[in-house]
Design a protein that fits this description.
By secondary structure, the protein is mainly α. The protein contains 18 helices and 6 strands. Helix content is 51%, strand content 7%. Strand 5 (65-68) and strand 6 form a beta hairpin. The chain binds s-citryldethia Coenzyme A (SDX). The site of s-citryldethia Coenzyme A has 22 residues, from helix 17.
Length: 428
């Protein structure tokens, strides 16, 4: 804390302590505002409200900066793996080779799921949304594994178990939804290769592992791994603040991510691009629709609550599209439409004035399509990537000595007091 700001309310001056972050971000602490002044603040959507101090991820929305534990996302995308980045987010430092070897062993040990969980998958209605299934299955993990009920269990075991099993849950759910035999995890494959194998291997046509695709999946999940206090992370922190277990808190994060304003946008982008392709809609007409206040159409994959310039993840995703599609010899017309749409939007005064740029979701679906992931699983892929971030934020909040149950206040705008009206006297 450094110094104070003066807040004058009804002629009286109150001093609020100033907090300055390690990158110079400034806040003043209003913890005692209501007790001292009787006032609360009002900030729907929390656009100007900090819910916590955190040392995990730093974003600068004006400069398009994103760093995990201080390391720029561009470097992690180029040099790290998803498992190593997950360790960095959760533990705050990069792992040693010994740490990586231990992690790999634990991820393998934890990769199976309880056979009875397969019955759950078989009884979800066929058109169930994979995010609804994932949220339910992650929440149920604690019931299937008594050791998970040991809330004192070592954090690295608790977290690696979930990071390993979420991948198996997602692949198993996909296979069973297609009526295919389940493919079990293999101990000779890396985290990402194992997922691809569980998704696509088959007795008739064995899955051919492509190292560039495995690399692309690592990068995809690295780019999604954390993003400070976004909607789903805030949900994980809020639910965790009631002292519920990690799995229930993560299940709430999955539910929040499902929304089209948030992680569900990656599916919405592809559906928008498919619609443009099918109906051959000129991109300038799409841009015009996105600007039309009378239509609820939005350019999905564009805009961001924090980034008011390029989302650095979108820049990397766009580069990866060209690499992955070329390597897989995929010619996806949606990529060309996406690029033309981006070009049209970025030269339009509306988008320029409102600082609307492509976000992480604009190009990510193109990569997932090329890999063979079905559109309705795109947000599940986002959730697997975001899991280490949710976990690290949950641990940080539950270990914070100032940790209290999240309980925002409100400004009441309803009826003033009036007496009960007997039924016979109502609406005469
Ligand atoms: C993610 O928070 C995170 O960090 C999220 C995320 C993460 O990693 O966790 O980055 C992941 O959720 C990315 C965002 C994915 N969602 C979308 O792509 C959906 C489309 N985008 C929008 O719905 C919107 O941009 C949001 C929800 C992302 C951000 O909304 P804001 O900051 O609340 O912006 P707003 O709704 O207040 O809009 C400001 C203005 C409005 O116009 P005016 O009322 O001022 O005239 O910009 C317009 C909006 O109409 N606008 C858009 C637009 N986004 C905002 N107009 C057309 N198309 C869009 N996409």
């Amino acid at each position: 804390m450094t110094g104070f700001v003066d807040v004058v309310i009804e002629g009286k001056t109150y001093q609020m302590p100033v907090i300055i972050g390690s990158e110079g971000e400034k806040a003043f602490d209003i913890t005692k505002l209501r007790d001292q002044t009787g006032y609360i603040t009002h900030d729907p959507g929390f656009g100007s409200t900090g819910s916590c101090s955190s040392s995990i991820t730093y974003m600068d929305g004006d400069k398009g900066i994103l760093r995990y534990r201080g390391i720029p996302i561009e470097q992690l995308a180029k040099k790290s793996s998803f498992v190593e980045t997950a360790y960095l987010l959760i533990n705050g430092i990069l792992p040693s080779q010994g740490d990586l070897n231990e992690i790999r062993t634990l991820l393998n040990d934890y990769s199976m799921i309880h056979e009875n969980m397969q019955d759950f998958f078989k009884h979800f209605p066929r058109d169930s949304h994979p995010m609804g299934i994932l949220s339910a299955m992650v929440g149920s993990l604690r019931s299937f594994y008594p050791e998970m009920q040991n809330d004192e269990e070592a954090v690295n075991k608790k977290t690696l178990r979930l990071i390993s099993k979420i991948r198996t849950l997602a692949a198993m759910s996909f296979r069973i939804s297609r009526g295919n035999k389940v493919v079990y995890p293999r101990h000779d494959l890396s985290y990402c290769a194992n997922f691809l194998n569980m998704m696509f291997d088959g007795p008739v046509k064995p899955y051919t592992m492509d190292e560039d695709v495995v690399r692309a999946l690592n990068v995809f999940w690295i780019l999604h791994a954390d993003h400070e206090q976004n909607c789903s992370t805030a949900a994980v922190r809020v639910v965790g603040s009631a002292q519920v277990n990690l799995y229930a808190s993560i299940s709430a994060g999955i539910a929040a991510l499902w929304g089209p304003r948030h992680g569900g946008a990656n599916m919405a982008v592809i559906r928008m691009l498919e619609d443009i392709a099918e109906r051959n809609i000129p991109v300038d007409k799409i841009v015009k629709m996105a600007k039309d206040k009378n239509s609820d159409f939005r350019l999905m994959g564009f805009g961001h609550r924090v980034y008011k310039t390029f989302d650095p993840r979108a820049v990397i995703m766009k580069e990866m599209c060209d690499i992955v599609l070329k390597k897989l010899n995929v010619d996806d017309p949606l990529l060309d439409i996406a690029k033309r749409l981006e070009e049209a939007a970025l030269t339009d005064p509306y988008f320029i004035e409102k600082n609307l740029y492509p976000n992480v979701d604009f190009y990510s679906g193109i990569i997932l399509r090329a890999i063979g992931i079905p559109t309705n699983m795109f947000t599940v892929m986002f959730a697997i990537g975001r899991l280490p971030g949710w976990i690290s934020q949950w641990i940080e909040s539950t270990e914070d000595p100032r940790w209290k149950i999240a309980r925002p206040r409100q400004i009441y705008t309803g009826n003033k007091k009036y007496d009960y009206i007997p039924i016979e006297a109502r609406y005469i």
